């Protein structure tokens, strides 16, 4: 049996060569790995599975949009892990989680990093976001892109805080489905 690194790298290379089926399998397997990673990290700071699921969706989207930056000569899992860490750091910043909430053995992983999308990926994201309902789009932009709190987003979008949370969760799932659909085409 081959290692997960080898299996994932083979899927990534096939994906980069235009194999939509491999891309779907890659994103599915990465989702499982990332879900376990985020649940473990967030449980240590008293956060729940719903937040872990949001981070999984964000990381999978980032892998999809940033796949062109992957160097095929390098191992895949450290590249994915770096994206996952940066998404976790962004989450901690957005939620104003203090470094004192992070266990000491995890503190070295929490550092500043600029995780900007390339112009091409930003265009893809904007195009896909236009396909979402207005309130859903507003919720995602406010919280996930602009870094506002859920309360601030609720006021900005004119909906309840629970509505913002639901919109983000459903919107990220819809975006993931749209990406999967486009990779099949």
TrEMBL record:
Every RNA polymerase sigma-70 region domain range: 37-96
Assigned keywords, A-Z: DNA-binding, Sigma factor, Transcription, Transcription regulation
Domain of life: Bacteria
Domain RNA polymerase sigma factor 70 region 4 type: 124-175
Any one Gene Ontology molecular-function term assigned to this protein's record: DNA binding
InterPro entries cross-referenced by the UniProt entry: RNA_pol_sigma-70-like (IPR039425), RNA_pol_sigma-70_dom (IPR014284), RNA_pol_sigma70_r2 (IPR007627), RNA_pol_sigma70_r4_t2 (IPR013249), RNA_pol_sigma_r2 (IPR013325), RNA_pol_sigma_r3/r4-like (IPR013324), WH-like_DNA-bd_sf (IPR036388)
Keyword Transcription regulation listed: yes
Keyword Transcription: yes
Matches recorded under Gene3D superfamilies: 1.10.1740.10, Winged helix-like DNA-binding domain superfamily/Winged helix DNA-binding domain
NCBIfam families named in the record: PRK12539.1, sigma70-ECF
Name the UniProt record assigns to this protein: RNA polymerase subunit sigma
